[in-house]
Amino acid sequence: MKAEDVAEYLVNHPEFFETYSQMLSDIAIPHPYGGRTVSLSERQLLSLRERVKELEKKLHDLLVFATENDALQAKVQQFVLSIIGNSEASTVQHTITQNLANIFTIPQVVIRLWHDAPPSAEVLKFADSLSLPVCVHHAVHDTQTWFGNAASALHSFAYLPLKNGDEIIGLLVFASEDKQRFYPEMGTVFLQRIAEQVSAALHQEN
What we know:
Layout: H1 3-12, H2 15-19, H3 21-26, E1 28-30, E2 37-39, H4 40-83, H5 89-104, E3 108-113, H6 121-128, E4 134-136, E5 156-164, E6 167-176, H7 189-205
Antiparallel strand pairs: 1-2, 3-6, 4-5, 5-6
Helix pairs in contact: 4-5, 4-7, 5-7
């Protein structure tokens, strides 16, 4: 008889443990963290304690995640309020980049609008392919030159498409020396919210 057969029988016949209840205390199995043996019931208790620890860690991680989300939401709201009512063409872009850098502590922020500075064909094709922000570890095509003297030290980038309706009108780009500041697997919900607000502010400017 195979071990799988025994396991299947016990699962299908739970009354076995009622009939042979004494056997549960008589069976000794290796302790998971030592050389001694423990009873089956003690081993089950150890497993339950491990499970509780795992659940506690998951709960802690969820609470940390919720706290971080709340903090980000507050920063997004602060940013939105900082640009509301600013409709002067000469200052709106500067206000946006400065407030993004200050509120979110982003080392480098660049806005590139096509009507001011038409991009290369490669960048235009890349921007047109974006439906949501993307984060990468390497600058896309020639966009690294947009950061001037700081370009060579930058190792992570977030590209946020700016739109007027369904039309891509430019890119908002964040960059950092920290390779883990922006990475391909990170969530982009808040980045998308920022992109929408910046797009609206720029549309109001025009």
